[in-house]
Amino acid sequence: MGLGGMALASLAGHGIAGEAGSPYAPRSAPVRPRVKRVIYLFMAGGPSQLELWDHKPKLTALSGQAIPDSFLEGKRFAFMDTSFKNRSTLLGSRRSFRQHGQAGVWCSDLLPHTSGMMDDLAVVKSCATNLFNHAPAKLFMNTGSGQFGRPSMGSWVTYGLGSESRDLPAFVVLQSGPRGPRGGPANWASGFLPTTFQGVPLRGSGDPILNLSNPEGITDVRQRRALDAIRDLNLQRAVVTGDPEIHTRIASYEMACRMQTSAPELMDLAGESPATLKLYGCDPAKPSFARNCLLARRLIERDVRFVQLYHADWDSHGGPGQTIDEDLEKVAREVDQACAALVKDLKARGLLDDTLVIWGGEFGRTPMGEIREKTGRNHHIDAFTMWFAGGGIRPGIELGRTDELGFNAIEDRAPVHDVHATILHLLGFDHERLTFRFQGRDFRLTDVEGTVLHKLVA
Amino acid sequence: MRKDGWRDAIYLCVSVCTKYANKAQQFEQNGHFPRCTYIRKDDTELNRLRRDPWNLLALCRFMGSEVFQRMDMNWDHEPGSAGILPANLRSFSRLAGKMPALPASRFMGSKTAFRGCRVVASMVSQRRSHMNCRWIICLVLLAGGLPLEAATDAVRAAKPLRQPHWAFVKPVRPVIPPLPTNAIVNSVNPIDGFIRARLAKEGIPASPEADRITLIRRVSLDLTGLPPSPGDVRAFLSDLRPDAWERVVDRLLASPHFGERQARIWLDLARYADSNGYSIDSPRSVWPYRDWVIRAFNADMPFDQFTVWQLAGDLVASSAALGTDEARDALIASGFHRNTQVNHEGGVDVEQFRVESVVDRVNTTATVWLGLTVGCAQCHDHKFDPISQREYYRLLAFFNSCENDGHGNASLTAEQILELGTPEEIARRNEHRAEVSRRDKALAEWAATELLGRFPGWEAGLTEQSRGGFSRLLRDVLAIPPANRAKDQSNLVWGTFRDQDAEWKVRRAELDQFKRQEPLIPSTLVMKERAEPRETRVLIKGDFTRPSEVVTAGTPAVLAPLATPGRTRRDLATWLVSVENPLTGRVVANRLWQQIFGKGLVETENDFGTQGTSPSHRELLDWLACELVEPSAAAGAWSLKRMIRLLVTSATYRQSSQARNELAERDPRNLLLARQSRVRLDAELIRDVALVASGQFDSRIGGAPVYPPQPAGLGAFTQNDRPWKPSEGGDRFRRGIYTALQRSSLHPALVVFDAPDANTSCTRRIRSNTPLQSLTQLNDAAFFELARALGHRLPGAASKDETRIEMVSRACLGRLPAAAERQRLSELVRLGRADGQSEGDVWTDVVRVFFNLDETITRE
């Protein structure tokens, strides 16, 4: 029996927050864990690996020519029937690429800060996915399935490991950019796992957590008095009925009360040094990806298990605001410095050793150009780049290779299920044994597939 | 299973696996199993698997489904026919000779072996044809080293291994056990006979009846989802007639709120929502379906008719037997299967999402009526239950010829949207639309003449400064001479000019204003069968790009055959509710039990297959199923009200829910029902209770979705930040069932209390207990608004503090506070006053305490 049975016994909607036997109680991983926490920097929209990472001189040389038919046979693409078919000529990247770090990892001038951290990153250039529309692909990357209704990776991890934070949720989601990610809350939903394990969005303005502030006009004194009376009356009822569930509810109220203090304290960046703010490029007053990166570090420091940052919009189709030239430059600029700063900062504070940082989107972009008002690239599932850093990751390596046009991953292919298996492995799980029984079947994050990418693991 | 049975099963398992390994290379070459990691391994690996039965068993576990898909085809053939099996017997025999001996004892302790055996044993025992089993036994014997002829002979004499799975056999009405003599409560309710007999066997006494206030609050919440009014409680307390309880039950069954409560539970199954789902998630109008469900429950529509209308109401409506109103209702009811999601995202493959929606219809139908997880068989034969992939697609064929496409590209025809206005209303609306199109045309003409005349002058007159305000794209385009511009470039410039023209703006705004005045006509989504049926094919691994064998509509072989000659959705629906169907009656009875007792007799209410849990009271379940489908009284078949009445008038239902220390070890999950259970209320009810208690409740039934307040900025995390304008007046205080359900952004107070996401059919809600719930109840503006309303009313409603506390307590809990509770609350009042709080604020604090009590949100 996998963890499913173990955790199930204490779950089924019961449990005492912050106490042994509760869904939140910290649990030790079954296999030796390399990391305890995860920060997942989700680049929503599908960053162009060909502009950022995957250096393809041959593609540049053939730019403007039709793509050989052998590449397209049997492939399916988004917007297949309209914009794509007639204009599938190759498009070379106009970025300048250079090798960085001791391993000489290729990276373009769009990521000057990240490329300076190359000795700490493991860059996987052979990622591949199955789905080419945004919402299903995002769900696939987050839940291992393109269908709505499955638990997200963060939910699986908190389900498996519980929480070490007594006053913040175990799985927190932050968002920046012009809009929320496609698929929305389904990306951090708990699916058929209890809602206890769903991601809690921290909001950029107003209450960081919904309903965190007292109702209007209720002072802290009145709130505390009400809480005390609620606790006392609940205790009396627990005695009358003998129902242990009431004790769980009492504990829930206590944790809610602690959250009322801890969440605003988390959001208050006044204690961060000017040097740190400068490192991240963060204006503490303004919601931004940089501020979210800094918050991610603060969340990790407070023992939050899984932090996921979404940043839109990488969807470089070539329409207004979507070019692979100035618009892509802008998005890259929004994230580059803060990503590098986060890794640097975690390292300096000794947190990188037991934290896993993941960077990547839901798919990549085609070697063919897409012409809308301007030039861009279409969604591409056969090759894209992600990077990993932190405990258990072999630092300073480049893994995987694509063909000379950057179309297919031809060496060390890293499908999504394998990426998931590896992440769970680093957290101390056999991905085949982290299961939950639902509708007569044992479900896993990796569905019926997944192989750990051992070359990625130190 | 007896000891020999284990050994048989183990051998069976080995034989299946061996056979698989034998063919694996061939499969690999054909590319049948691209997802199978095992067979991708090299030959050495394959041979290792083949040599070691332990590994084969593991393989069986992991690969089961894929293996069975192939195996199943073989099993359907007798030796000598076209099947592969007989041809393989000889080679299998040779292979078996090379295999090591198989000491059965080696496998006994192995969990993997155990699971593998269960897989095979259930597969085998569920097959209708025993011939299948026999040929597997033949393989076993061969594996054991018996010569081919002897094995074949032995097999001809073999008997089936096991009885079929209980749930696939039509229930037979069991004899009702007499009440044990030591029963505390006398009862004539058959349910008590079954429950008490079991308790007597275990030597556990039942719990005493709960007090009357607990009872009336319990049954009011279970039947109507609303707490009893203080008047209801008083009336029940003072009713000393012997049938006082039955009178309360009958009053509640007749309440129009009964339908609301039951409908909400049904809507979970129907995955009802007011939006289209997926990432775009635009609003949709299908609420008349929701209202029809409420009406159907209130009218106690027999469940068989309820079924046929929902699965095939469109086909029923066209038959001459119905009156106009009935036909309209049947059509509305067919909206059940229009609750599928529709993907409006750009660039999707239309067929993919059409197939998704049909698949959802099949899976939902099987879950709701058969309690089976057929979804597994979309990609491969069901591992555990006797449903082959082919049978899955035969079920799918019933739903495959609907017009609705799951993508939303095809424009919805009038036949797929039922408008519910009078002919006059519709005519008025159509006239308005015609007028809009006339005015549209007029505006376009004006723009093409008069406005166009100003265009060249405008562009010529642009200064460097005014261009500075333009986007970079526009500036680039303006640099191109007009004659050289592409069409979209010209359009961009023209659009910019047009949108800054003052007169255009006025005219445009006038037209928009007029468009918004279109008379609203309620509409709902209904099913529509295509004139030309679609061909249905098995999809390899469920992948819509890999169609294979053509199949016709049909039902799984393990269940009774179709009752009617046709092959339409109506025939399927009729079959589901036919008396021969062993599952539907049990599944429905079990869900009613779950609803009333907090947990089903079969705890896996969505899995009655071999992997589900066995019923805790099998005979009771069968008796209930028989009573539902073929009642002992002459009338009332499929009446849900009659069944619910039966459940809640039992002494078992009326027991106290008090925890019992002596049972904590013996029956911690209360499966034996020696007491009632305390159950946290569903999400909607938590607010409903506060609404009623506050006095703000608007009890109107039905209508378009409403928008109770929710925290601002929720949409920021969704792709499309859709506006949520809080309703004003009564609509702000309607029951939770009427809250607009936007799939991508459900009302947070619903989500936090485990309301389902409406993406797939939900047969049971989780009941979690989290700090986020506490924050909602404590601080959510909507809850606070209600607390405040009551708090500020209290000082005027009674002069004494004592009475005021009693009033809130009655409103929230139905009961008077105990002495210690009064004291604690008086203390709160005293502290508030000492701080100089206004009376309204003092009593708001008291109400907030009550709203947050565990008891308030619990059915005891």
Tell me how many strands of chain B there are. Answer: 6
Q: Judging from the principal axes of the Cα atoms, what is the shape of chain B?
A: globular
Instruction: Note the main sheet of chain A.
Output: 9 strands, mixed
The termini of chain A sit apart by 29 Å
Number of helices of chain B: 36
Unreliable stretches of chain A: 1-21, 82-86
Give the C-alpha Rg of chain A: 23 Å
How large a portion of the residues of chain B is in β-strands, by DSSP E? Answer: under 5%
Question: What is the number of strand segments of chain A?
Answer: 17
How many discrete structural domains of chain A?
A: 1
Radius of gyration of chain B equals 33 Å
Strand content of chain A: 15-25%
Low-confidence stretches of chain B: 1-147, 154-162
Report helical residue fraction of chain B.
40-55%
What does this structure look like?
The complex is a heterodimer of chains A (458) and B (860). Helix content of chain A is 32%, strand content 18%. Chain A contains 14 helices and 17 strands. In chain A, the strands form five sheets. In chain A, strands 1, 4, 5, 6, 7, 8, 11, 12 and 15 form a nine-stranded mixed sheet that branches. In chain A, a hairpin with a 4-residue loop joins strand 2 (97-100) and strand 3. In chain B, the strands form three sheets. A two-stranded antiparallel sheet of chain B has the order 1-2. Chain B has a two-stranded antiparallel ribbon with strand order 3-4. Among the domains of chain B are: 3-163, no CATH class; 302-419 and 525-581, no CATH class; 423-521, no CATH class; 779-859. In chain B, a hairpin with a 7-residue loop joins strand 3 (536-539) and strand 4 (547-551). By secondary structure, chain B is mainly alpha-helical. Residues 1-147 and 154-162 of chain B have low confidence and may be disordered. Chains A and B meet through strand 6, helix 9 and helix 10 of A and helix 32, helix 35 and helix 36 of B.
